[in-house]
Q: What sequence folds into this?
């Protein structure tokens, strides 16, 4: 089984990466919505690969592309948004992609940062979308943005994705996480771009993270190498209580097709701030393994959390417990 950490400020030093490998990490993900391969050159060349070598691992390196995902732009500082207050999304306020500005209409609700914040569009003006904050919080740079119930037409790969793909081989990238896959065509487009970049051997991990991905699940399963159940954004596309049912449905379809799949996001969310997980979190990990997840991946816990090594330790130990129990059951 593979155990992945997301690289970020909390684990970008040699001691932490040594700790993550020692805890059982088998590879890392770089989220290219927050950085570029070129910016990470020192981290990868001088820290990550030497740590993998010391650990004696044939480690994976996964790049997560930008793809069609909508995000807030870069902010000079985090913005506090108070519940009940008004804010503007657009050229005269918080930067958002032009496609989102065009698509959103008065009455629409816009979720920010995987639904941690929620605003309702009241008016569309030249300076942007005048919104009422329904669920407040602090908004940070490059957080996800979704217009609830509306599909925004964006390209499969951004210019930055193509630049990163062109660099990928020389940085040792082994897997590509493809966001917001909307059908087999998106995967064929990526495969062609990978071939042009000399990455024919790279594996495509297709993220199922919206309704379109769920609708086209069968063709995506056929075209991808591995399926990623990306619960962060997938959870934005349905009432949260329906998410476990969607997760189980994707897992079932993958098992039936013999396609490897894995589960990501908020596996150990509370460990961003606490050294010990909740009972619910370890149960979630255990159940994902019983369902057949071939890998597990931490996101904010290792990229931005206070306990990256402890989180990896709980992830690996809990998953190994499930694997041991499965083996015992199969022996009986
Ligand atoms: N390379 C990075 N540099 C700095 N901060 C990062 C980096 N990668 C992730 N982070 C921080 O950790 C948070 C959680 O990471 P994660 O990869 O889940 O991002 P995300 O914005 O939720 O995107 P996605 O929807 O693709 O998961 C990010 O929102 C960001 O604040
Ligand atoms: C990791 C990710 O992209 C998600 O869960 O949405």
A:
């Amino acid at each position: 089984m593979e155990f992945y950490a997301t690289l970020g400020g909390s684990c970008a030093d040699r001691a932490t990466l040594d700790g993550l490998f020692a805890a059982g990490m088998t590879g890392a993900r770089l989220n290219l919505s927050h950085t570029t391969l070129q910016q990470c050159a020192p981290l990868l060349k001088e820290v990550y690969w030497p740590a993998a070598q010391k650990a004696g691992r044939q480690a994976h390196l996964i790049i997560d592309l930008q793809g069609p995902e909508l995000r807030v732009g870069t902010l000079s500082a985090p913005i506090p948004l108070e519940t009940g207050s008004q804010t503007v999304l657009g050229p005269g306020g918080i930067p958002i992609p032009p496609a989102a500005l065009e698509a959103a209409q008065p009455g629409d609700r816009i979720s920010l940062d995987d639904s941690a914040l929620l605003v309702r569009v009241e008016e569309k003006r030249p300076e942007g979308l005048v919104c009422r904050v329904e669920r407040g919080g602090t908004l940070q740079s490059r957080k996800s943005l979704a217009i609830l119930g509306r599909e925004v037409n964006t390209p499969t790969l951004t210019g930055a994705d193509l630049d990163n793909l062109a660099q990928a081989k020389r940085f040792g990238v082994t897997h590509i996480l493809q966001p917001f896959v909307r059908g087999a065509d998106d995967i064929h487009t990526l495969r062609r771009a990978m071939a042009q970049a000399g990455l024919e051997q790279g594996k495509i991990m297709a993220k199922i993270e919206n309704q379109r991905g769920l609708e086209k699940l069968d063709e995506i399963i056929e075209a991808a190498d591995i399926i990623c159940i990306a619960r962060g954004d997938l959870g934005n596309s349905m009432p949260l209580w329906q998410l476990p049912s969607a997760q189980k449905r994707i897992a079932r379809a993958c098992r039936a097709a013999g396609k490897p799949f894995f589960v990501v996001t908020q596996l150990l969310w509370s460990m961003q701030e606490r050294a010990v997980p909740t009972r619910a979190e370890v149960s979630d990990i255990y159940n994902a393994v019983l369902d057949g997840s071939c890998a597990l991946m931490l996101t904010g816990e290792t990229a931005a959390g206070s306990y990256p090594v402890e989180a990896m330790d709980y992830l690996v130990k809990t998953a190994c417990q499930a694997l041991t129990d499965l083996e015992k059951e199969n022996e009986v």
Summary: The mean pLDDT is 96. The chain has two domains: 2-69+156-331, 79-147. Residues 79-147 form a domain with the M1 Pyruvate Kinase; Domain 3 fold (CATH 2.40.33.10). The chain has twelve helices and 15 strands.
